[in-house]
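Retro notes (design track)

What went well: tokenization of the new backbones is finally stable.
What didn't: we kept losing track of which sequence belonged to which structure.
Fix going forward: every design gets posted as structure first, then sequence, in one message. First example under the new rule, 332 residues:
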């Protein structure tokens, strides 16, 4: 059943996947991150609700172990992303080859986190039709994986970033990875920013926190700027000052990577961001790695905070998989 991850997850032995059919590949999973959306899926509060029992894991990276008939753009040994929502917390899986491409040489643990956050950041930057080189983009949750990706992608596109964080010690860290202006989100932050950048254009704001933090982002936007909400870390409703809507005509809209109109843009975003991961321009600190057998400890670590990764031995003879326990139905 869906529920608390530490309770409903279990380790299971499943048969080896079948040989790939035409247009498919067999992937040996090397690494798979544990994301908050994985935990939301397990809890049953994520838009994607698989039939149970189900393997979990929304992204990962692995090597091509075998190819099916008609697959001519990949070869055995290529490193590829596990397709989104292919349930990567397992050693091997068969997936469609369409959309997959050989990844550049890079730290495979960093590549394992390429599938969701970097394309999210890239596509968030596309939400304004008015961005020009030299413009500023404001964001909160700047220390998140999306936030760090956005800093690198914006810099590659000739944009500058205003980055809000909650802790003072994060300021020099994000400056070191390319954040142009990094500031603690506290009283007086908007005035401090305006004193620093003057009348420079800020046509786009990115909100991953919601609550009052959204009002801060809207407050630094230029006239007719766009505020894009992609997450709600605070768990609170989005708050925007009425005058920002009335006088500045700020537009507020949402973003979800799996909207059908957005999904079509993911492949191009992946090809844009993969070289940035390979070069180290996009790099997310990893707090710890765990084997699949330590899934309870790994999930608990994520719930405490920090980026956590499964190290998966895709060449092993074991086929252990973290799965959601099947619901039990009993006759009265």
């Amino acid at each position: 059943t869906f529920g608390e991850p530490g309770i409903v997850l279990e380790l299971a032995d499943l048969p080896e996947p079948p040989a790939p059919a035409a247009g498919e590949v067999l992937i040996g999973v090397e690494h798979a991150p544990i994301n908050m959306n994985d935990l939301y899926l397990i809890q049953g509060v994520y838009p994607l609700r698989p039939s149970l029992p189900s393997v979990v894991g929304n992204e990962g990276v692995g090597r091509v172990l075998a190819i099916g008939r008609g697959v001519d753009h990949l070869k055995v040994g290529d490193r590829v992303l596990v397709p989104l929502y292919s349930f990567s917390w397992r050693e091997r899986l068969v997936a469609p080859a369409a959309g997959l491409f050989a990844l550049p040489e890079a730290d495979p643990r960093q590549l394992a986190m390429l599938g969701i956050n970097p394309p999210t950041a890239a596509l968030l930057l596309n939400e304004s039709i008015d961005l020009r080189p030299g413009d500023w983009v404001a964001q909160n949750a700047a220390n998140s994986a999306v936030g760090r990706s956005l800093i690198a992608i914006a810099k590659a596109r000739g944009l500058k970033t205003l980055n809000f964080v909650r802790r003072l010690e994060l300021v020099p860290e994000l400056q070191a990875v390319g954040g142009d202006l990094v500031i603690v989100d506290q009283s007086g932050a908007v005035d401090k920013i305006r004193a620093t950048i003057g009348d420079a254009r800020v046509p786009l704001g990115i909100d991953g926190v919601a609550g009052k933090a959204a009002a801060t982002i809207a407050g630094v936007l230029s006239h007719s700027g766009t505020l894009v909400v992609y997450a709600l870390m605070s768990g609170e409703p989005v708050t925007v000052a009425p005058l920002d809507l009335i006088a500045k005509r700020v537009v507020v809209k949402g973003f979800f990577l799996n909207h059908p109109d957005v999904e079509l843009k993911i492949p191009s975003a992946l090809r844009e961001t993969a070289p940035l991961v390979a070069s180290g321009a996009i790099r997310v600190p990893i707090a710890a790695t765990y084997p699949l057998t330590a899934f309870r400890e790994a999930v608990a670590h994520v719930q405490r905070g920090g980026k956590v990764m499964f190290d998966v031995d895709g060449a092993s003879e074991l086929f252990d998989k973290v799965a959601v326990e099947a619901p039990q139905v009993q006759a009265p």
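Added context from the reviewer: DSSP finds twelve helices and 15 strands in the chain.
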